[in-house]
Amino acid sequence: MAKVRISKRTIDSLLNAAAGTIIRDDKLVGFQARKNANGTVSYAFEYRSTKGRGGITRRVTIGREREGGGVLTPDQARTIAEQLAAEVVAGGDPAAGRAKSRQVPTLADFAKEHYDAAAIIAKAQPLSAKLRIGTVRNYQSIMRKHAGPAFGSRKMDAITKADVSRLHAKMAGTPVAANAMLECLRNLYAAAAEAGLIGEGTCPAVGVKMYKKNRRERFLSLAEVERLGAAMIEAETVGLPWELKSKEGAKFVPHGDRRTMVDPDALAALRILVFTGCRLREVLHLRWDQVDLERGIITVHGKTGRRAVMLPAPAALILSQVPRRGSFVFPGRSSTAEKPAPRSNLDSAWIPIRRHAGLDGLRLHDLRHSFASFAAAGGASLPVIGKLLGHSTPAMTQRYAHFADDPVRAVSEKTAATVAAAMGIAGAVEDKGEVVEFRRASA
């Protein structure tokens, strides 16, 4: 094996040499070129993985050059060889790193395996699953529509933060989906790191700033709650009146006062949402073995894990009147003794009730916000409200701080009255908290 400087001239000569001919660079130790049987020249870097005579000789293929040029030039190959040499000097093992990289799956392959398994667990064991079935389906959709087409065919360790940032920017028109894409990638890379397929802290979505969420929050007033309650009572006693969106094209239009009774299960679930501030799935997926009427507690499993929810008297009374027809408190239509299933939604009852109450646009989740707002206005502290709602961080509860203005004002008025009396200012504040004209106390 000759030792010459590997350059364009020597490679041209090597292309005309016999197959199997190898030349080594006379300056960069380990850098070599070989003539292959198929007429190409391949570049490689050879080194010892450990110092001393007992070191193992390893070889890393850099690339190829075809007759007439193309793929890789000698100078480009030399640059790569120099980088590999520097890695060896620093104590690295380039060949081992490449072998490990070949074991890293593509993003699409890992996502399919991971979410298929997560879906099975979410259906079979919803209370202990790390991901709920709705979240799994959402992430599968993100992979199918966005992350998959962008870089699903690439190995997970080859996707960069710049790649993710470009996709996130491209999805700016749908900020909710863009943020969900980041959450999906973070979930996948955390699972891959846990499985030992990639290193810790290698997620390319980390550091990409999410778009600011425009929260849709609606808080009911007491008057609106009264209307909602009246609509529920009407729905279960005499039924809600029929409403046709349009009479155009209707062959038969009902005459007289036609009404429809609402499903009592749906009404019970709606009232529990109002009285507890629970999330919808926490109520619909509730099992009878999670209900303790004696202690007034239900144990739910939601976004933040398992938690105990205190049952106020009205909610406990409602649950005590729900008939037991299986393991779920609110079984779905397809539920059987062999395959119990929870109710999937409350739309058939909720939509006509809110319409009849004049609350179009009100979401079921807004009942949760309203529960928290009434708690704050009633004097509950933010930590207590966070405990009631099962919030994972204090920041999630902070949105209800402004509803505590009335209790704060009451304390402020009482404190001011005490200070005013000490300062000799009488009659500043009456017992009812009504502000009256200041007047000096007589000397």
UniProtKB/TrEMBL annotation:
Domain Tyr recombinase: 215-413
Family matches, as Gene3D superfamilies: 1.10.150.130, Integrase, DNA-binding domain, Intergrase catalytic core
Protein keywords: DNA integration, DNA recombination, DNA-binding
UniProt xrefs under PROSITE patterns: CB (PS51900), TYR_RECOMBINASE (PS51898)
Residues forming coiled coils: none
The Core-binding (CB) domain, residue ranges: 105-193
InterPro entries: CB, DNA_brk_join_enz, Integrase-like_cat_sf, Integrase_catalytic, Integrase_DNA-bd_sf, Integrase_DNA_bind_dom, Integrase_recombinase_N, Integrase_SAM-like_N
GO biological process, one term: DNA recombination
Domain of life: Bacteria
Presence of the UniProt keyword Disulfide bond in the record: no
GO molecular function (one): DNA binding
UniProt cross-references to PANTHER family, sorted A to Z: PROPHAGE INTEGRASE (PTHR30629), PROPHAGE INTEGRASE INTS-RELATED (PTHR30629:SF2)
Family listed: Belongs to the 'phage' integrase family.
Protein name, UniProt field: DUF4102 domain-containing protein
Species for this entry: Borborobacter arsenicus
